[in-house]
Amino acid sequence: MSDTFKQGLVSKVVWQWVEKAAQPGPQKPSMIFSLVTLGIGLGIGALFYAYFKPVMAIIVWVISSCIFLLSRFAPGMYGAIERGFAILSRYIGIVLTWLLLTPFYYVCFGFGRLMQKITGKDPMTRRFDDEADTYWQDKVAELDEERYRRQF
Fold first, then answer.
1. pTM as predicted
2. Are 50 and 6 in contact (CB under 8 A)?
3. Is residue 33 a contact partner of residue 82, using CB atoms and an 8 Å limit?
4. From residue 94, how far is each of 4, 86, 104 by CA, in Å?
5. HSE-up of 58 (CA within 13 Å, CB side)?
6. Does the structure show a pLDDT above 70 at 45?
7. Running DSSP on this structure, what letter comes out for residue 93?
8. How many Cα atoms within 13 Å fall on the side-chain side of residue 68?
């Protein structure tokens, strides 16, 4: 892409990718974000400590403190760790989707549909009726005033 590209006004407001691409080096996260991340790590460590796992609590405290210090003083290394976590979370999401959610969907909905077939229920009335003149279903409108006050 050439350096003479002019981003449109609406696009610049919605998605400021030209300015972000021009910024040199890794960006430091905000202090609030770093402190919240540290607080979460310290809280999880405290839970481990409360449930009599002091070694795991110390490991979590050390890792969260190191990540906090890297986010403040070595943004390049923090960025590498963040990218690593992003890649790891993507693969975890793929595994959970295909190995857990897909079979769960087919087992649950397949079993439900099988039970409907066995019992002969068709709640969506999908059967084709040759003798029906129309498939239009009349709805009786309620004319009471209270219905309009309670719309949902």
1. 0.55
2. no
3. no
4. 39, 12, 15
5. 3
6. yes
7. H
8. 18
